[in-house]
Amino acid sequence: MLEVENLICEYPEGEGKTVVGLALPSFQMKDGEAWGVEGPSGSGKTTLFHCLAGLLTPTRGKILVDGVELTGLSEPERAKWRAENLGYVFQEPKLLPFLTIGENIRLSAYMAGKKLEEVRLRDLLQEVGLPDCEKRFPRQLSGGERQRAAFVRAIVREPRLLLADEPTASLDGRNSERLLDLLLVYQAKSRCMLLCASHDPAVKRRFTRKLELRKEGEKC
Ligand SMILES: Nc1ncnc2c1ncn2[C@@H]1O[C@H](COP(=O)(O)OP(=O)(O)OP(=O)(O)O)[C@@H](O)[C@H]1O
Ligand SMILES: [Mg+2]
User: Fold this and answer.
1) Domain with 8 in it: what CATH number?
2) For the chain, which terminus, N or C, has the lower number of CB atoms within 10 Å?
3) Is the shortest distance between the CB of 55 and ligand 1 below 6 Å?
């Protein structure tokens, strides 16, 4: 279960000033649920995901995952928690440039302590339409291909909490539907908690549960 209590996240803006990146009232998400995260550009979707990933400490509020208070963990404890519990499809794919696609994905599973059969890796790459990319480097792929590889990298960790930040942003309609199908099938099978941020109407309509963020000035 994910429990979020009145989150405020402020960024320093120089001269002692701050800007509110996120203001969100409390909510709870149960195991096996999939939610869409909506809101205009700048409303704090990525900021929320960074907080949920323990990459950013909110200025105020609490985050608990399965009863563990993320905001109360030290940095090494948070790194361990991330390795064991989190899958993150970043808004920018962030693949390691000096490793091949296959190595990026294997490393991700290894860091999470998960065994990844070679045949499963090949099947997943096939399913996302990257059958010949295992030995290629990220720079040799298009933006959309990197995004699909980053999706595979996130799910081989078998995460408890899966965050997908604009996972279809660089994809055409067909590949976008395909990736979304895989994301939702994976979520239903694994019963992980999924939060998926998107501006894409085709993505938004696939989620019945929604978390709506508002821009600063309109924040609740
Ligand atoms: N590192 C930072 N330093 C200062 N302000 C930041 C920083 N990161 C984000 N912000 C501000 O916080 C607000 C929320 O940003 P965020 O990236 O979370 O929005 P978003 O909803 O993900 O937008 P988009 O849909 O464009 O990806 C914005 O006003 C942004 O300018
Ligand atoms: Mg964003």
Assistant:
1) 3.40.50.300
2) C
3) no
